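Good morning,

Both structures are done.
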Amino acid sequence: MSELSASKSKKPAAPKVIITCAVTGGIHTPTMSDALPYKPEDIASQAIAAAHAGAAILHLHARDPQDGRPTPDPAVFMQFLPRIKEATDAIINVTTGGGLNMTVEQRLAAPLIAKPEMCSLNMGSMNFGIYPMADRYKDWKFDWEEAYLRNTDDFIFRNTFRDIERILKMLGEEHGTRFEHECYDVGHLYNVAHFVDRGLLKPPFFVQMIFGILGGIGAELDNLLFMKRTADKLFGSDYRWSVLAAGRHQMNFATQAALLGGSVRVGLEDSLYIGRGTLAASNAEQVTKVRGIVESLGLEIATPDEARSMLGLKGAENVGF
């Protein structure tokens, strides 16, 4: 084989896979799993363990230390953000989604103080139904949990164009934060494109495709392929993408995303399980499992600094904590 033929036959290296771990979220409640962290020290220790297991990005919510309900209180965030930063070099990604029924002002309170490298940003309003989960439990650890779940049959998760623009300007333009653009349906990809066209988003941007939430696109392989084709059409080479799927679909969709050249998100926010009928013992257990899957496919995981470079982040030295 000639040198020219040999060079043509070489395929470009597959992109490294960024593992995001969503440590606690605002969906599951303490009754559902003893492993779900809600005290600041437990959120910190689980996040640190997840980073050591291979997560380059840690996606973080706060919860009331007394009863585990989601809280937007910056003081609670500051009980674990500095500790995680001190113990790891992982990228810290602070939610702007918060918890159900929080106002946009409440959702922005902690990020505007923390000025993190990344924040999550939901790219459209939607019916967000987690009420079917309430039927699985009869006894509750805390009195807020059942109503919190059941009331989502009459709940719209608000993310208007004005809300999104406000977040992009207040966190992005003013503080250099970049975003995990959470897209629960194909229309949300077009919303990302809308803000790109308006010049409020500049590449590289990070699109998180989300499957299996009631009110969003279903967890079916055809939908994953459709979302990916749509994103390619809209963004070309200007974006990085990742996949999360809720519940039992978590690892299957992570595997498919890695095979297609994407990145992956796991964590107890998205699924409480490690296998069929088996609750995960920790976030790190899920990270370890998905890392094993990714590496078994002959792919490499990205280090935090490699992920920073891939996503154009400002660096941990430029945050507010």
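Second structure follows.
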Amino acid sequence: MRAVIVAAAIAFLVSLFGTPVAIRVFTALKAGQPIRSLGLASNEGKKGTPAMGGVAFIVATLVGYVAGHFALTTLPERQIAQERPTMTALVLLGLFVFCGAVGFLDDFLKVRKRNSDGLSAKGKLLGQAIVGTGFGIAALSLASTNGQTVVSENISFIRDIDWLDVGKVGAVIMFVFVITAMSNGVNLTDGLDGLATGASVLVLGAYALIGFWQYRHWCADDTYARVNDYCYQVRDPLEIAMIAAAAAAACLGFLWWNTSPARIFMGDVGALALGALIGGLAVATRTTLLSILIGGLFFVITITWVIQIVSFRTTGRRVFRMVPLHHHFELVGWSEVNIVVRFWIVAGAGVAAGLGLFYSDFLAGAG
């Protein structure tokens, strides 16, 4: 617990006090966010607000993770098995950084061209697919000393589903799909001040709890496994908890400056990075299907976007006034702050329901 708390505290402080530095730097570089003219009230006065703010919480998360490892040296001997960075950390942080790099390139092109056209949709998908495939293969191929890999060959809900074995190729394809879907889901959600940031704090916080719970009931921990065989077959759950807690805290520090009226936007660098990390956490904790509920807000916004596109292309009619969904409610007449807070409530409800199912499964199995 000490390592998780230290990682979160340091990440929060670095993000809280580092984001103003990022604001000054990106403002000086004239890295303002190009705003499309959509006739939305939320877009008024935002032109020129610095983007690429995701760099701040990415750096803060990395610093927090390193600090958490220093704290591990004071833990009892049986708990120092994860003192050094593991393959789980390399995969999760690698997804975080490299998908962030794809987003950074998109943001850079937008700023350079002085319009909202950055990377093409195909270009972003290709970048995400390359990153996901590389880390997916590594996550599936390199096992720990107890034989566990970061990625399982089984599709998971709250743990691996034994009869849903998709094989190595299928596991990599599923991994890429989850990473791409979640990163684009967060990206679609990032349209109002603080919306995606606050929702990500809730989802990442949930995964910090899940990771730590799995660590305390870990099959690799002989002390626990000897007295209760209902344990979690995952790899490096303490690493998962530290990374998720550090990222949640870093986003919370960033939210201080990103909430309405935003002084800085996370940009695609932040949105794609956060989505990739959340997808990676879902796969690593063996909660892939449960992540649909935990990340319910991202799922709803993505599905409604798909419905709108399919409906318009097949019938020429729009189901919603505008997508992503938060813009529909703007046109209905809701204020930006109302939309953000109410969507946070939706995100919190999904997180609460997901954690409830996770814990209920444990009670049913351990009882």
